Amino acid sequence: MSKQTHSFQAEVQQILHLVTHSLYSNKEIFLRELVSNASDACDKLRFEALDNAALYEDQPNLELRVLFDAEAKTITIRDNGIGMSAEEAVAHLGTIAKSGTREFMARLEGDQKKDANLIGQFGVGFYSGFIVADRMTVETRRAGAPADQGVRWSSTGSGDFEVETIDKPGRGTDVILHLREGEEEFLSAWKLKSIIGKYSDHISLPILMRKETWDEEKKAQVPTDEWETVNKAAALWTRSKSDITDAEYQDFYKQISYDQQAPLAYTHNRVEGRTEYTQLLYVPAKAPFDLWNRDKRGGVKLYVKRVFIMDDAEALMPVYLRFVKGVIDSADLPLNVSRELLQESRDVKAIREGSTKRVLSMLEDVANSDEPSQKDKYAAFWKEFGQVLKEGIGEDFANRERLAKLFRFASTHADEGVSLADYVSRMKEGQDAVYYITADSLAAAKGSPQLEIFRKKGIEVLLLVDRVDEWMLSHLYEFEGHALTSVAKGAVDLGKLQDEDEKKAAEQAAEASKPLVDKLKASLGERVKDVRVTTRLVDSPACVVVDEGDVSAHLARMLKAAGQ
Ligand code: ADP
Ligand code: MG
């Protein structure tokens, strides 16, 4: 194929512009992104080679190399992974297949601080090379293709790129950065090593660099033909817990999550028994920008005996824990396991149940800690992920009790942070039910006349104002034997909470008001189901309630707003 010129997809041009301009203050991340792509390429080769060992050609050892040429002002990131065909190079390095581009760009234009992480989260890492390079050349050959089927892709990162056929004896990809004027600081082994140490130490393949020697004539370090491994090259989760420092766990989290904040909690275990696996799971402190994006990439990577199998293995985590990040390495699954197979596997089911329990106990540890800092952490976590966790009530029947204990609400007692256990501990003598009211906002809930009698008697009422609450209540109807009861439904029988005098007074009032009630019934007619005298009001003359078992007024409003 002779040289062809292609235009970048419009989104790529926008991304390129944004990435090179707004990520400049964090420019060293280009190396993290290109090393991560090289490592992914090796993982892909290993995976495809499970069915076709010939793809290894004569090079069974997968590795990455980072080279630089001080005179030519280039840095090369080389891998002997899967490589790309010409079609793949055009598609993968010229278009963006993922959704959420607009949101990504809006974020990139806005909040400067998160920028560097967003690029990895969104997966446009390749283009970060243009932060430091005014030209990028990619020389690649797909594993299994003949040597004369190599491809050279090159671009100055503005508007278009060129593709041509080349000879490339070695399998895999060289990404060559032609550094911009002023970026010479990266032409140093020390500098490159320190960036690799900072971002890429966890890469489980060896990253090789040339050893250097002092040249008297040039008065400088010069590269030799000897190579050395500059990273640890052992996947963190395969190491023994006692050898791993907290800082290493934190670094690994940052590398896999692109989240610069420390995680809320993590857990690392080797699980033995019928199903054997290692889990290293993290709960983030902050939600990613795409938590609500349906086709967002999941957080748990599946390995089988250290071989990377897939990202985003949904079968390993329930949907309501989709914010959990980490790695699960199974000793039992077949290496050629597919997504379909995962759904059916008994081992996967056991892993999923075990991992779910682990995550819940991590959350419980933070939530139940007596340390104020942990309590604050949990409150922050709840703000970020509470709505997602509530989904679990409908999704995960087995863990319903544990989930309910992790929930936090507003109530007439406190504006936030009220657990059901707190509520129960404050229940009045003779109170059986957990009372709640649903509304669009805290202010609306607090202003409801339905609360009057509860206020007067000092009975706490939960104020449920999240959109998911109505739905949650259809799955959560009791807590430790106490029925969750709406104050806005039915006759609200305060039962034992009413004293004898009050009961008598109520009966008398009902008797005395009978003529008025009859009149109201007659004039309201079909528009109401019933009119009755109530003890629930203290200051207001009347209020509307729905019947037990009917759709609540709040839900009715939501359904109406949704056009149903
Ligand atoms: P992501 O890695 O999140 O997919 P990138 O922008 O980093 O996004 O890379 C885009 C795509 O380009 C990759 O998905 C991959 O298909 C291809 N690619 C990039 N680098 C390499 C490489 N070294 N070897 C093979 N394919 C690569
Ligand atoms: Mg990438």
Automatic annotation (TrEMBL):
The keyword Transferase appears for this protein: no
The record ties this protein, via Gene3D superfamilies, to:
3.30.230.80, 3.40.50.11260, Heat shock protein 90, C-terminal domain (1.20.120.790), Histidine kinase-like ATPase, C-terminal domain (3.30.565.10)
Chain spans, region A: 1-339
Q: Which residues bind ATP?
A: 33, 37, 79, 84, 98-100, 121-126, 173, 339
Q: Name one GO cellular component term.
A: cytoplasm
Q: Which GO terms describe its molecular function?
A: ATP binding; ATP hydrolysis activity; ATP-dependent protein folding chaperone; unfolded protein binding
Where is this chain's protein located in or outside the cell? Cytoplasm
Q: Which SUPFAM superfamilies match?
A: ATPase domain of HSP90 chaperone/DNA topoisomerase II/histidine kinase (SSF55874), HSP90 C-terminal domain (SSF110942), Ribosomal protein S5 domain 2-like (SSF54211)
Q: Which PROSITE patterns match?
A: HSP90
User: Where would I find the Histidine kinase/HSP90-like ATPase domain in this sequence?
Assistant: 26-183
Record keywords, A-Z: ATP-binding, Chaperone, Cytoplasm, Nucleotide-binding, Stress response
Major location, coarse class?
Answer: cytoplasm
Q: What does this protein do?
A: Molecular chaperone. Has ATPase activity.
> Quaternary structure?
Homodimer.
* Family statement: Belongs to the heat shock protein 90 family.
Q: What is this protein called?
A: Chaperone protein HtpG
Q: Which organism is it from?
A: Rubrivivax albus
UniProt lineage: Bacteria, Pseudomonadati, Pseudomonadota, Betaproteobacteria, Burkholderiales
